[in-house]
Amino acid sequence: MQSSDARILRGAAIPSGLAGLAVIAAAVPLAGAKGALGAALGTVVVLAFFTISVVAVGYAARISPQMMFAAAVFSYLGKVLAMLVLVAALDGVTLWNTKAFAWSVIVLTLVWVVAEARAAMKNKTLSLDPAGAAGVARDRSP
């Protein structure tokens, strides 16, 4: 993983983890221990799913820039399928509060996306290679 990818991952994971703790704390008075457990599981799911995506895209970027899109799409499809399987498998579970789980997933997904976008904007990674651009400009001159 490149250092820019690690900065983006930290920039999204830390705020999301802190928001997860806040969601768990808010779930206790609203839904009791079952709510806290549901919120904790939602936090783990969001952190795991989004971390997998960042790592997969970062790994694909080292192989080939063209592979980044494929890694992003396939990791997204894999997460959607995994979530469908998870929801179907845990349909009648009464061990935790499913509403607390769902709300924590929604809230933490929004926090992650905003924090990741903020971290990416703060990250000053060049999208063009200045050396390559200078070489192209020299080739065009008479």
Topology:
Blueprint (H helix, E strand, L loop, with lengths): L2 H61 L3 H23 L8 H25 L7 H11 L2
Helix pairs in contact: 1-2, 1-3
How would you summarize what this structure contains?
This protein has 142 residues and is mainly α. It has one domain.
Total beta-strand segments: 0
Hey, roughly how much beta strand do the residues contain? under 5%
Secondary-structure element pattern, one letter each: HHHH
Which regions contain 5 or more consecutive residues with pLDDT less than 50? 137-141
Number of helices: 4
Shape: flat
Number of domains: 1
Secondary structure: helix percent: over 70%
Quote the distance from N terminus to C terminus. 42 Å
Mean pLDDT: 85
Biggest sheet layout: none
- Overall SS class: mainly alpha
What is Rg? 20 Å
Comma- or semicolon-separated keywords:
single chain, 142 residues, mainly alpha, disordered C terminus
Question: Could you describe the 3D structure shown?
Answer:
- This protein is mainly alpha-helical and 142 residues long.
- The protein has one domain.
- The chain is built from four helices and no strands.
- Helix 1 packs across helix 3 (98-122).
- The longest helix has 61 residues, at 3-63.
- It is flat, with a radius of gyration of 20 Å.
